[in-house]
Amino acid sequence: MSQTDAISADQTPISCDVLVAGAGAAGLSAAHAFATQGRKVVIVGKIETHAAGRTVALFEGSLRFFRALDLWQACAVHANPMEGIRMIDDTGSIFPSTPREFRSREIDLDAFGENIENNALVAELAAAARKNPDITLIEDLIDSFELNYLGARARLASGGYIEAKFVVAGEGRNSQARQIAGITVKTWTYPQVALTVLLAHEKPHYNISTEFHKRSGPFTFVPLRGREGAPHRSSLVWLVTPRDALRLQAESAEMLAAEIEDESHGLLGAIAIDGPLGSFPMGGLKTSRVTGLRMALIGESAHLFPPIGAQGLNLTLRDIANLVDCLEGVDLDETDRITRALEDYERHRARDIGLRVNGVDILNRSLLVHALPVDFARAAALNFFAAIGPLRRALMREGVTPHGSTPKLMRARPPLRRTRVQVAQKF
Ligand SMILES: Cc1cc2nc3c(=O)[nH]c(=O)nc-3n(C[C@H](O)[C@H](O)[C@H](O)COP(=O)(O)OP(=O)(O)OC[C@H]3O[C@@H](n4cnc5c(N)ncnc54)[C@H](O)[C@@H]3O)c2cc1C
């Protein structure tokens, strides 16, 4: 059911099993995952499809997640496979790492994953949510929350209330649910802005993503599906200083394209700008916990880091798949069972989140610091991992399907769809 009209304050509160706060890629994915588990889900958030020039590279585990939920077919028409990842040290250091190319075939995959426009992904997930009888999508904002031992109550900005047995906080970096649950956050900023733009280019990308490591951070082409009149397209994520971001944003499309051509040493031939330029100030965020009373954090409510190695949403989907596993078969009327399930979620997520937030932070800072020992260590580490076959493959697998127990929604075979009646019968 889709509900776009405001609920007036005198209406009876809407009750549900799971309230998902925030309707970005994270929240929408969570709504689908919980609905498939047989829960009655309400998701509240505005559908925003104006992330200029932004794409997400989704790795194999994430694709399995969407396939298991029957969501990938609709998204696939917008996506392009990524069969290789090329890394080029363009820092100008006297200790450059050797250029490397990693191929998905080396780890027996046709592709590492697929690259899709953020807006297309969100639009498809929202369209599927509107058609799903177990999901009520309310295109509004949550004004305030109350979380207590028995459940949660949320007030909508336009009036009306939602009562839920469980809350999934997917409202992004400024999560209000996180604050109300008393979870503390550590935030920091980097002297970088990510510029994003879609490009049409002369030469084919051969389904290979190319990451130039520059002093201001990575400059990454990710292959995108061609369209009529522009058979060769890529997205660009370019980390620059705030001052350069302002300068580049003021340039004409022709000047910007010429500068991108120069920065990429003509790799894709002549370039044309194929959409608006996006700009995202870079920061990081870690939380003291990822759970509260009858609530869990997912996505950027729980972790934030720069877009290096395309990890953000992939990590988020692992949050969701893991949370769904932890709550499987749990009667949401039993607070103690929920608390135990959340302890499992807390334990499972700590390592994965810590590894990505800290790993990306170290790599990013190693590019920003102009120090020979740091350059040497970065180059030596990459050369070492890339040259030794088993380590190289382990590194590739860790990026695509991280080790540790794989959540059910990310296993190769999709789980059977269970009905609400089946869940109820367990008790
Ligand atoms: C330049 C760039 C490139 C990236 N590339 C990749 C990539 O290739 N691969 C990858 O895996 N990740 C990538 N990421 C990361 C990925 O895009 C993010 O992790 C993901 O989009 C975050 O989704 P989210 O739903 O958690 O947060 P958001 O997209 O911020 O969604 C949160 C939503 O909650 C809403 N909201 C906030 N408060 C309320 C409220 N009170 N009530 C209701 N709704 C509320 C907001 O309006 C918003 O719609 C990239 C990020 C950037 C910046």
Structure description:
By secondary structure, the protein is α/β, with parallel strands linked by helices. It has a domain at 2-60 and 118-187 and 284-368 and 404-425: FAD/NAD(P)-binding domain (3-Layer(bba) Sandwich). It has helices at residues 25-36, 60-68, 72-76, 118-131, 176-180, 242-249, 253-263, 312-326, 335-368, 372-387, 389-400, 420-425; strands at residues 2-3, 14-21, 41-44, 55-59, 80-82, 84-89, 100-103, 113-117, 135-138, 142-147, 152-156, 161-169, 185-201, 208-214, 217-224, 233-240, 271-273, 278-287, 291-292, 295-297, 303-304. The strands form three sheets. Strands 1, 2, 3, 9, 10, 11, 12, 19 and 20 form a nine-stranded mixed beta sheet that branches. Strand 10 (142-147) and strand 11 form a beta hairpin. Helix 1 (25-36) runs parallel beside helix 4 (118-131) and helix 10 (372-387) crosses helix 11 (389-400). The model is unreliable at 1-9 and 414-427 (pLDDT under 50). Bound molecules: flavin-adenine dinucleotide. Flavin-adenine dinucleotide binds at residues 21-27, 44-46, 48, 54, 56-57, 141-142, 170-172, 176, 194, 196, 237, 280, 299-300, 307, 310-314, 316.
